[in-house]
Amino acid sequence: MIRNSINLLTKKLISSTSCQRTRMRCFSSGATNLVDVNVNDKTGIAVVTLNRPPVNSLNLELLTDLSKTLDELESNRSKGMILTSSSKTVFSAGLDILEMYNPEPERSKAFWTALQDVWLKLYGSPYPTAAAINGHSPAGGCLLAICCEYRVMVNDFTIGLNETRLGISAPSFFISSFRNVLSTREAEKALTLGTMFSSDEALKVGLVDEIATDKADSINKCENFLLEFKKVSSMARAFTKQSLRKKDLEELENNREQDLQLFLFAINQPIVQKGLGAYIQSLKKK
Ligand SMILES: CCCCCCCCCC/C=C/CC(=O)SCCNC(=O)CCNC(=O)[C@H](O)C(C)(C)COP(=O)(O)OP(=O)(O)OC[C@H]1O[C@@H](n2cnc3c(N)ncnc32)[C@H](O)[C@@H]1OP(=O)(O)O
Description:
Shape: globular
Largest sheet: 7 strands, mixed
CATH topology: 2-enoyl-CoA Hydratase, Chain A, domain 1
CATH superfamily: 2-enoyl-CoA Hydratase, Chain A, domain 1
Number of domains: 1
Order of helices and strands: HEEEHEHEEHEEHHEHEHHHH
Catalytic activity: (3Z)-decenoyl-CoA = (2E)-decenoyl-CoA; (3Z)-octenoyl-CoA = (2E)-octenoyl-CoA; (3Z)-dodecenoyl-CoA = (2E)-dodecenoyl-CoA; (2E)-tetradecenoyl-CoA = (3Z)-tetradecenoyl-CoA
Bound molecules: ligand LMJFFPRB
Subunit structure: Homotrimer.
InterPro entries: ClpP/crotonase-like_dom_sf, Enoyl-CoA_hydra/iso
Number of helices: 11
Radius of gyration: 19 Å
Subcellular location: Mitochondrion matrix
GO cellular component, one term: mitochondrial matrix
Protein backbone atom coordinates (compact mmCIF):
# COMPACT_ATOMS: atom_id res chain seq x y z
CA MET A 1 0.00 0.00 0.00
CA ILE A 2 2.75 2.45 1.10
CA ARG A 3 4.95 1.30 -1.79
CA ASN A 4 2.07 1.93 -4.20
CA SER A 5 1.61 5.44 -2.85
CA ILE A 6 5.34 6.14 -3.16
CA ASN A 7 5.33 4.81 -6.73
CA LEU A 8 2.40 7.04 -7.54
CA LEU A 9 4.09 10.05 -5.95
CA THR A 10 7.34 9.32 -7.82
CA LYS A 11 5.44 9.02 -11.11
CA LYS A 12 3.69 12.33 -10.43
CA LEU A 13 6.99 14.02 -9.60
CA ILE A 14 8.67 12.66 -12.73
CA SER A 15 5.80 13.71 -14.95
CA SER A 16 5.51 17.16 -13.34
CA THR A 17 9.29 17.68 -13.71
CA SER A 18 9.23 16.81 -17.41
CA CYS A 19 6.24 19.08 -17.95
CA GLN A 20 7.86 21.93 -15.95
CA ARG A 21 10.87 21.80 -18.24
CA THR A 22 8.69 22.85 -21.16
CA ARG A 23 6.15 24.68 -19.03
CA MET A 24 3.51 22.28 -20.35
CA ARG A 25 0.73 20.42 -18.62
CA CYS A 26 0.05 17.08 -20.25
CA PHE A 27 -3.15 15.11 -20.25
CA SER A 28 -4.47 12.34 -22.39
CA SER A 29 -8.00 12.23 -23.63
CA GLY A 30 -9.18 8.88 -22.40
CA ALA A 31 -8.89 5.14 -22.50
CA THR A 32 -7.33 4.63 -25.92
CA ASN A 33 -4.85 7.57 -25.96
CA LEU A 34 -5.14 8.33 -29.63
CA VAL A 35 -5.01 12.04 -28.90
CA ASP A 36 -2.24 13.76 -26.92
CA VAL A 37 -2.81 17.10 -25.27
CA ASN A 38 -0.12 19.52 -24.07
CA VAL A 39 -1.23 22.73 -22.44
CA ASN A 40 1.31 25.54 -22.26
CA ASP A 41 1.04 26.88 -18.70
CA LYS A 42 2.18 30.32 -19.76
CA THR A 43 -0.27 30.90 -22.61
CA GLY A 44 -3.03 28.42 -21.72
CA ILE A 45 -2.97 27.20 -25.33
CA ALA A 46 -3.42 23.45 -25.86
CA VAL A 47 -1.61 21.58 -28.60
CA VAL A 48 -3.82 18.63 -29.50
CA THR A 49 -1.99 15.93 -31.46
CA LEU A 50 -3.78 13.22 -33.43
CA ASN A 51 -1.82 10.05 -32.81
CA ARG A 52 -3.21 7.09 -34.69
CA PRO A 53 -0.43 5.76 -36.94
CA PRO A 54 0.12 5.33 -39.74
CA VAL A 55 -2.17 8.01 -41.22
CA ASN A 56 -4.54 9.22 -38.47
CA SER A 57 -7.56 7.85 -40.29
CA LEU A 58 -10.59 8.78 -38.24
CA ASN A 59 -12.13 5.63 -36.78
CA LEU A 60 -14.67 5.39 -33.96
CA GLU A 61 -11.98 5.29 -31.24
CA LEU A 62 -10.03 8.29 -32.52
CA LEU A 63 -13.21 10.33 -32.95
CA THR A 64 -14.35 9.37 -29.43
CA ASP A 65 -11.01 10.45 -27.96
CA LEU A 66 -11.07 13.71 -29.88
CA SER A 67 -14.63 14.37 -28.76
CA LYS A 68 -13.66 13.84 -25.08
CA THR A 69 -10.67 16.14 -25.53
CA LEU A 70 -12.89 18.89 -26.92
CA ASP A 71 -15.20 18.50 -23.90
CA GLU A 72 -12.24 18.82 -21.53
CA LEU A 73 -10.93 21.92 -23.30
CA GLU A 74 -14.33 23.54 -23.07
CA SER A 75 -14.87 22.72 -19.41
CA ASN A 76 -11.32 23.91 -18.58
CA ARG A 77 -12.11 27.22 -20.34
CA SER A 78 -9.22 26.73 -22.72
CA LYS A 79 -7.46 29.82 -24.07
CA GLY A 80 -7.10 28.17 -27.45
CA MET A 81 -6.35 24.98 -29.29
CA ILE A 82 -3.85 24.01 -32.00
CA LEU A 83 -4.73 20.79 -33.81
CA THR A 84 -1.86 18.86 -35.36
CA SER A 85 -0.59 15.34 -36.06
CA SER A 86 2.15 13.06 -34.79
CA SER A 87 2.87 11.84 -38.35
CA LYS A 88 5.64 13.44 -40.40
CA THR A 89 3.65 13.35 -43.65
CA VAL A 90 -0.07 13.04 -42.89
CA PHE A 91 -2.27 15.42 -40.89
CA SER A 92 -5.21 13.02 -41.24
CA ALA A 93 -6.18 10.66 -44.09
CA GLY A 94 -9.84 11.45 -43.38
CA LEU A 95 -12.49 8.99 -42.33
CA ASP A 96 -11.27 5.45 -41.86
CA ILE A 97 -12.61 3.77 -44.98
CA LEU A 98 -12.76 0.46 -43.12
CA GLU A 99 -15.52 1.97 -40.94
CA MET A 100 -17.66 2.27 -44.07
CA TYR A 101 -16.69 -0.91 -45.91
CA ASN A 102 -18.84 -3.97 -45.05
CA PRO A 103 -20.34 -1.91 -42.22
CA GLU A 104 -21.60 -3.42 -38.99
CA PRO A 105 -24.89 -1.58 -38.23
CA GLU A 106 -24.38 -0.61 -34.56
CA ARG A 107 -20.75 0.39 -35.04
CA SER A 108 -21.46 2.52 -38.12
CA LYS A 109 -24.19 4.36 -36.20
CA ALA A 110 -21.79 5.05 -33.32
CA PHE A 111 -19.08 6.05 -35.79
CA TRP A 112 -21.19 8.63 -37.63
CA THR A 113 -22.65 9.97 -34.37
CA ALA A 114 -19.11 10.45 -33.04
CA LEU A 115 -18.17 12.35 -36.21
CA GLN A 116 -21.22 14.59 -35.84
CA ASP A 117 -20.26 15.22 -32.19
CA VAL A 118 -16.70 16.16 -33.11
CA TRP A 119 -17.88 18.51 -35.85
CA LEU A 120 -20.43 20.25 -33.59
CA LYS A 121 -17.88 20.68 -30.79
CA LEU A 122 -14.98 21.79 -32.97
CA TYR A 123 -16.86 24.02 -35.43
CA GLY A 124 -18.84 25.61 -32.58
CA SER A 125 -16.10 25.75 -29.93
CA PRO A 126 -16.14 28.85 -27.69
CA TYR A 127 -12.30 28.89 -27.55
CA PRO A 128 -10.24 29.90 -30.59
CA THR A 129 -8.87 27.13 -32.78
CA ALA A 130 -6.10 26.76 -35.34
CA ALA A 131 -4.83 23.84 -37.40
CA ALA A 132 -1.11 23.22 -37.87
CA ILE A 133 -1.44 21.08 -41.00
CA ASN A 134 1.84 19.20 -41.03
CA GLY A 135 0.94 16.66 -43.72
CA HIS A 136 -1.62 15.56 -46.30
CA SER A 137 -5.16 16.38 -45.36
CA PRO A 138 -7.76 14.78 -47.63
CA ALA A 139 -11.53 14.64 -47.02
CA GLY A 140 -12.27 14.19 -43.27
CA GLY A 141 -8.74 15.48 -42.55
CA CYS A 142 -9.58 18.66 -44.42
CA LEU A 143 -12.88 18.77 -42.49
CA LEU A 144 -11.04 18.97 -39.14
CA ALA A 145 -8.83 21.75 -40.50
CA ILE A 146 -11.70 23.84 -41.88
CA CYS A 147 -13.57 23.58 -38.58
CA CYS A 148 -10.71 25.60 -37.10
CA GLU A 149 -10.60 29.37 -37.42
CA TYR A 150 -7.06 29.53 -38.82
CA ARG A 151 -4.93 27.15 -40.86
CA VAL A 152 -1.18 27.05 -41.30
CA MET A 153 0.05 24.43 -43.75
CA VAL A 154 3.52 23.00 -44.13
CA ASN A 155 4.79 23.13 -47.72
CA ASP A 156 4.64 20.19 -50.13
CA PHE A 157 1.44 18.53 -48.94
CA THR A 158 -2.12 18.40 -50.26
CA ILE A 159 -5.52 19.32 -48.83
CA GLY A 160 -9.11 19.17 -50.06
CA LEU A 161 -12.51 17.51 -50.01
CA ASN A 162 -12.00 14.77 -52.60
CA GLU A 163 -15.17 12.75 -51.90
CA THR A 164 -16.51 12.89 -55.47
CA ARG A 165 -13.29 11.14 -56.58
CA LEU A 166 -14.35 8.25 -54.33
CA GLY A 167 -17.81 8.18 -55.91
CA ILE A 168 -19.52 9.74 -52.90
CA SER A 169 -20.80 13.21 -52.09
CA ALA A 170 -19.38 15.22 -49.23
CA PRO A 171 -22.03 15.32 -46.48
CA SER A 172 -23.84 18.64 -45.93
CA PHE A 173 -21.87 19.66 -42.82
CA PHE A 174 -18.60 19.12 -44.71
CA ILE A 175 -19.96 21.45 -47.40
CA SER A 176 -21.15 24.15 -45.00
CA SER A 177 -17.80 24.34 -43.23
CA PHE A 178 -16.00 24.44 -46.60
CA ARG A 179 -18.24 27.31 -47.69
CA ASN A 180 -17.44 29.12 -44.47
CA VAL A 181 -13.84 29.31 -45.71
CA LEU A 182 -14.12 29.54 -49.50
CA SER A 183 -16.41 31.54 -51.76
CA THR A 184 -19.44 29.57 -52.97
CA ARG A 185 -17.93 29.61 -56.48
CA GLU A 186 -14.58 28.18 -55.38
CA ALA A 187 -16.28 25.67 -53.05
CA GLU A 188 -18.56 24.40 -55.80
CA LYS A 189 -15.71 23.99 -58.26
CA ALA A 190 -13.46 22.21 -55.75
CA LEU A 191 -16.20 19.98 -54.33
CA THR A 192 -17.58 18.81 -57.65
CA LEU A 193 -14.12 18.15 -59.05
CA GLY A 194 -12.87 16.65 -55.76
CA THR A 195 -9.82 18.92 -55.98
CA MET A 196 -6.79 18.23 -53.82
CA PHE A 197 -4.88 21.53 -53.52
CA SER A 198 -1.12 21.84 -53.08
CA SER A 199 -0.10 24.06 -50.15
CA ASP A 200 0.51 27.01 -52.51
CA GLU A 201 -2.80 26.53 -54.33
CA ALA A 202 -4.58 26.26 -50.99
CA LEU A 203 -3.03 29.56 -49.90
CA LYS A 204 -3.99 31.25 -53.16
CA VAL A 205 -7.63 30.18 -52.94
CA GLY A 206 -7.86 31.01 -49.20
CA LEU A 207 -8.22 27.44 -47.97
CA VAL A 208 -5.19 28.01 -45.71
CA ASP A 209 -4.03 31.27 -44.16
CA GLU A 210 -0.26 30.80 -44.06
CA ILE A 211 2.44 28.44 -45.27
CA ALA A 212 5.07 27.08 -42.90
CA THR A 213 8.46 25.52 -43.44
CA ASP A 214 7.96 22.71 -40.93
CA LYS A 215 5.74 21.53 -38.08
CA ALA A 216 7.40 23.74 -35.44
CA ASP A 217 6.97 26.78 -37.68
CA SER A 218 3.30 25.92 -38.28
CA ILE A 219 2.64 25.60 -34.54
CA ASN A 220 4.45 28.86 -33.90
CA LYS A 221 2.36 30.65 -36.51
CA CYS A 222 -0.87 29.18 -35.12
CA GLU A 223 0.18 30.31 -31.63
CA ASN A 224 0.80 33.87 -32.87
CA PHE A 225 -2.71 33.91 -34.33
CA LEU A 226 -4.27 32.63 -31.10
CA LEU A 227 -2.30 35.06 -28.94
CA GLU A 228 -3.93 37.96 -30.80
CA PHE A 229 -7.10 37.13 -28.86
CA LYS A 230 -5.44 38.17 -25.59
CA LYS A 231 -6.65 41.66 -26.46
CA VAL A 232 -10.27 40.57 -27.00
CA SER A 233 -13.00 39.67 -24.50
CA SER A 234 -13.37 35.89 -24.68
CA MET A 235 -17.13 36.13 -24.24
CA ALA A 236 -17.53 38.66 -27.05
CA ARG A 237 -15.22 36.56 -29.25
CA ALA A 238 -17.08 33.30 -28.64
CA PHE A 239 -20.49 34.91 -29.14
CA THR A 240 -19.39 36.46 -32.43
CA LYS A 241 -17.92 33.20 -33.76
CA GLN A 242 -20.97 31.17 -32.74
CA SER A 243 -23.36 33.74 -34.24
CA LEU A 244 -21.54 33.54 -37.57
CA ARG A 245 -21.64 29.72 -37.51
CA LYS A 246 -25.09 29.39 -35.95
CA LYS A 247 -27.03 28.49 -39.10
CA ASP A 248 -24.59 25.69 -40.04
CA LEU A 249 -24.58 24.35 -36.46
CA GLU A 250 -28.37 24.42 -36.19
CA GLU A 251 -28.71 22.72 -39.57
CA LEU A 252 -26.94 19.64 -38.22
CA GLU A 253 -28.30 19.89 -34.64
CA ASN A 254 -31.85 19.86 -35.99
CA ASN A 255 -31.26 17.10 -38.55
CA ARG A 256 -28.87 14.68 -36.86
CA GLU A 257 -31.06 11.62 -37.25
CA GLN A 258 -31.80 12.38 -40.90
CA ASP A 259 -28.09 12.94 -41.57
CA LEU A 260 -27.28 9.61 -39.87
CA GLN A 261 -29.91 7.74 -41.87
CA LEU A 262 -28.60 9.26 -45.12
CA PHE A 263 -25.08 8.11 -44.26
CA LEU A 264 -26.26 4.58 -43.41
CA PHE A 265 -28.34 4.43 -46.57
CA ALA A 266 -25.45 5.71 -48.73
CA ILE A 267 -22.78 3.35 -47.40
CA ASN A 268 -25.10 0.36 -47.72
CA GLN A 269 -25.61 0.85 -51.46
CA PRO A 270 -23.90 -1.96 -53.41
CA ILE A 271 -22.37 0.54 -55.83
CA VAL A 272 -20.82 2.52 -52.95
CA GLN A 273 -19.50 -0.70 -51.38
CA LYS A 274 -17.98 -1.70 -54.70
CA GLY A 275 -16.31 1.71 -55.06
CA LEU A 276 -14.97 1.66 -51.51
CA GLY A 277 -13.65 -1.89 -51.98
CA ALA A 278 -11.80 -0.86 -55.14
CA TYR A 279 -10.44 2.24 -53.40
CA ILE A 280 -9.09 0.19 -50.47
CA GLN A 281 -7.38 -2.14 -52.93
CA SER A 282 -5.85 0.77 -54.84
CA LEU A 283 -4.43 2.18 -51.57
CA LYS A 284 -2.97 -1.19 -50.68
CA LYS A 285 -1.41 -1.71 -54.13
CA LYS A 286 0.51 1.59 -54.03
C1 LIG B 1 -26.15 11.84 -51.72
C2 LIG B 1 -25.13 11.40 -50.76
C3 LIG B 1 -25.13 12.11 -49.45
C4 LIG B 1 -23.91 11.89 -48.64
C5 LIG B 1 -23.95 10.65 -47.86
C6 LIG B 1 -22.72 10.34 -47.12
C7 LIG B 1 -21.80 9.37 -47.82
C8 LIG B 1 -20.63 8.98 -47.02
C9 LIG B 1 -19.72 10.12 -46.77
C10 LIG B 1 -18.40 9.65 -46.43
C11 LIG B 1 -17.43 10.74 -46.30
C12 LIG B 1 -16.16 10.45 -46.38
C13 LIG B 1 -15.09 11.40 -46.15
C14 LIG B 1 -13.73 10.75 -46.00
O1 LIG B 1 -12.92 11.21 -45.25
S1 LIG B 1 -13.41 9.33 -46.90
C15 LIG B 1 -11.67 9.07 -46.74
C16 LIG B 1 -10.97 9.79 -47.81
N1 LIG B 1 -9.57 9.66 -47.66
C17 LIG B 1 -8.73 9.50 -48.67
O2 LIG B 1 -9.13 9.47 -49.82
C18 LIG B 1 -7.27 9.37 -48.34
C19 LIG B 1 -6.73 8.06 -48.74
N2 LIG B 1 -5.35 7.95 -48.36
C20 LIG B 1 -4.33 8.53 -49.06
O3 LIG B 1 -4.52 9.21 -50.03
C21 LIG B 1 -2.94 8.27 -48.56
O4 LIG B 1 -2.98 7.19 -47.68
C22 LIG B 1 -2.28 9.47 -47.85
C23 LIG B 1 -3.17 10.04 -46.76
C24 LIG B 1 -1.92 10.55 -48.87
C25 LIG B 1 -0.96 8.98 -47.17
O5 LIG B 1 -0.14 8.33 -48.11
P1 LIG B 1 1.06 7.39 -47.62
O6 LIG B 1 1.77 6.96 -48.84
O7 LIG B 1 1.81 8.06 -46.55
O8 LIG B 1 0.35 6.16 -46.90
P2 LIG B 1 -0.37 4.91 -47.58
O9 LIG B 1 -1.26 5.35 -48.67
O10 LIG B 1 0.66 3.88 -47.90
O11 LIG B 1 -1.30 4.41 -46.37
C26 LIG B 1 -0.78 3.71 -45.26
C27 LIG B 1 -1.82 2.71 -44.80
O12 LIG B 1 -2.99 3.44 -44.37
C28 LIG B 1 -4.13 2.99 -45.11
N3 LIG B 1 -5.05 4.13 -45.31
C29 LIG B 1 -4.79 5.28 -45.93
N4 LIG B 1 -5.84 6.10 -45.88
C30 LIG B 1 -6.80 5.44 -45.23
C31 LIG B 1 -8.15 5.76 -44.87
N5 LIG B 1 -8.72 6.95 -45.14
N6 LIG B 1 -8.86 4.84 -44.21
C32 LIG B 1 -8.33 3.64 -43.89
N7 LIG B 1 -7.05 3.27 -44.20
C33 LIG B 1 -6.30 4.17 -44.87
C34 LIG B 1 -3.56 2.47 -46.42
O13 LIG B 1 -4.46 1.57 -47.02
C35 LIG B 1 -2.29 1.80 -45.93
O14 LIG B 1 -2.67 0.57 -45.34
P3 LIG B 1 -1.72 -0.73 -45.43
O15 LIG B 1 -0.49 -0.34 -44.66
O16 LIG B 1 -2.52 -1.82 -44.79
O17 LIG B 1 -1.45 -0.98 -46.90
